[in-house]
Design brief:
This protein is mainly beta. It is 10% helix and 34% strand. Bound molecules: zinc ion (2 copies).
């Protein structure tokens, strides 16, 4: 099992270190809710996730439900009718204590990807802010 939490630690959770599916998602809902160009998700059985704290649930679409911490705003989980039917939940990989524990296996919703993300890996890179 591996651990994750929101920024303030008000919500902490534990989940398996193996995902059924792991993706980087560029969809407009992920972009808007996170304020970031993409989100990395791990799909795991919902019953396998144990949680301390109560995230706020936001209906991001007719069927989509996004959970986040009310205190610090960190987004944590996603579910929808299909995932519920499958008994699965999506967890944001980047909120894991060890985000390298689960690597995304594919990129999805690239139709919504911001144009400059296609070449973002070619930008000048600095280990810290340049002086
Ligand atoms: Zn928090
Ligand atoms: Zn998405």
């Amino acid at each position: 099992m591996i651990q994750g939490r929101c920024r303030c630690g008000g919500i902490q959770f534990e989940m398996p270190d193996q995902a059924v599916l792991s993706t980087v998602c560029y969809c407009n809902d992920c972009r808007r809710q996170s304020g970031a160009p993409m989100l990395a998700w791990a799909m795991v059985p919902a019953v396998s996730v144990t949680m301390r704290g109560e995230p706020k649930v936001y209906a991001s679409s007719e069927r989509g439900r996004r959970s986040f911490c009310c205190a610090c705003g960190t987004g944590l989980f996603f579910t929808n009718a299909l995932l519920e039917q499958m008994g699965m939940v999506q967890v944001r990989i980047a909120v894991l204590d060890d985000p390298d524990a689960i690597a995304p296996k594919m990129q999805v919703q690239t139709a919504d990807r911001i144009g400059w993300m296609r070449s973002a890996h070619t930008l000048p890179a600095f280990e810290r802010f340049p002086t």
